């Protein structure tokens, strides 16, 4: 007891292999400690040092904590994080312990990263490309801070379908129903340049009006009407990376009506087409992050599809058949990023993950 590894009395009493094993173990422990120390140094550089715990966390601080979370996630090591007492975490609506779930599987974070931060609410988030043992996906992450420590973690991951037995595509989300627009990593190269761009003061919108604009869009889905929804004529919407407005090249919904190309319509006309009447309710709406400098609202909602419609009556077209995806009950857990300029919606980026019908979000 108390002998140093260099002490000759130790080498006289223990085999050399044991001595080398102990030495290597100590080196490994030292390396792990130094890696953790460096990661915490990076956290402190972002403004999270212990001496500043009671100060506010600005944009650089918030973005730094998000980046550090991703570093810890890829390292499968939540001990690298500063967590507030009583923290809460969910993954796709289910309560999880940090270190479980995707903490065991995420190997890489891709180049595609869309940051947004809300210093007033002490919240920040990101959409980021992930890789889990070769399965690509996109992560929507929300972090809430208290005294520069993480108090809430909300993760939603949408994974790309992969070939299963017989070559058929099988969903890695454990649910039989696939979204109408499945994930493919080729659609996540770089974010739309409008999103990360700052907004000139003349085009900024007050916080409450930004939330109201996003909420009005969900009202428009429920009512199948663009009336009262502040949509700019240049609006573009993407679902799971696929451009689903102003894109006539996307597959037809019903071959019997070749002229009806719902994804070729603009954002307002799409609401008016009644195509989204298959969604009975947009519920559990939350708007936790409002990034007024970038004109971004980050929303998390649930779309309920009761599966009770076989056709949708499209004005001026007729009874258009509903896609098989919407013919059975399901809910979609949705992370939505809105870009708002001068009070109007110009971009909508949705990540949709199929969950059991009526499932709660884990936060309402």
Explain what you see:
The protein contains five helices and 16 strands. With 364 residues, it is of the alpha+beta class. The strands form four sheets. The chain has a six-stranded mixed beta sheet with strand order 2-1-6-5-4-3, with helices on one face. A hairpin with a 2-residue loop joins strand 5 and strand 6. Helix 2 packs antiparallel against helix 3. The longest helix is centred in the first third of the chain and has 33 residues. The N terminus is likely disordered.
Short description:
The chain is an alpha+beta fold and 364 residues long. It has five helices and 16 strands.
Name the descriptors.
364 residues; alpha+beta; six-stranded mixed β-sheet; 5 helices; globular
Secondary structure elements and pairings:
Blueprint: H1 8-13, H2 16-48, H3 59-74, E1 83-91, E2 94-95, E3 106-118, E4 123-132, E5 135-146, E6 149-159, E7 162-163, E8 169-170, H4 207-223, E9 231-239, E10 242-243, H5 267-272, E11 281-291, E12 296-305, E13 311-314, E14 318-321, E15 330-341, E16 344-355
Parallel strand pairs: 1-6, 9-16
Antiparallel strand pairs: 1-2, 3-4, 4-5, 5-6, 7-8, 9-10, 11-12, 12-15, 13-14, 15-16
Helix pairs in contact: 2-3
């Amino acid at each position: 007891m108390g002998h140093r590894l260099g002490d000759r009395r130790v080498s006289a009493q223990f085999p050399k292999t044991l001595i080398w094993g102990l030495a290597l173990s100590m080196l490994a422990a030292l390396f792990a400690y130094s890696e953790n120390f460096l990661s915490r140094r990076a956290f402190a550089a972002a403004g999270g040092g212990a001496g500043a715990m009671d100060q506010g966390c600005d944009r650089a601080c918030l973005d730094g904590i998000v980046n550090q979370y991703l570093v810890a996630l890829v390292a499968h090591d939540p001990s690298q994080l500063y967590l507030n007492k009583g923290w809460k975490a969910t993954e796709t609506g289910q309560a999880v312990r940090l270190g479980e779930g995707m903490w065991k599987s995420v190997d890489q974070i891709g180049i595609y990263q869309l940051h947004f931060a809300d210093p007033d609410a002490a919240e920040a988030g990101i959409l980021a490309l992930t890789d889990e043992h070769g399965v690509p996906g996109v992560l929507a992450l929300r972090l809430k801070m208290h005294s520069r420590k993480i108090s809430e973690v909300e993760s939603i991951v949408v994974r790309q379908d992969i070939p299963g037995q017989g070559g058929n595509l099988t969903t890695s989300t454990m649910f039989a129903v696939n979204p109408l627009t499945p994930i493919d990593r080729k659609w996540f190269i770089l974010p739309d340049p409008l999103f990360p761009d700052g907004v000139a003061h003349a085009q900024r919108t007050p916080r409450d009006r930004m939330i109201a604009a996003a909420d009005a869009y969900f009202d428009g889905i429920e009512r199948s009407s663009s009336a009262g929804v502040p949509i700019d004529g240049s609006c573009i919407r993407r679902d799971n990376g696929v451009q689903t407005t102003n894109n006539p090249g996307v597959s037809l919904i019903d071959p019997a009506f070749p002229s009806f190309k719902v994804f070729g319509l603009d954002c307002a006309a799409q609401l008016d087409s009644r195509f989204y009447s298959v969604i009975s309710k947009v519920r559990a709406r939350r708007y936790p992050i409002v990034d007024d400098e970038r004109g971004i609202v980050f929303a998390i909602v649930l779309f309920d599809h009761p599966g009770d419609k076989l056709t949708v009556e499209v004005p001026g077209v007729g009874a258009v058949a509903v896609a098989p995806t919407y013919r059975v009950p399901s809910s979609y857990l949705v992370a939505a990023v809105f870009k708002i300029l001068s009070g109007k919606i110009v971009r909508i980026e949705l990540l949709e993950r199929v969950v059991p019908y009526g499932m709660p979000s884990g936060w309402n």
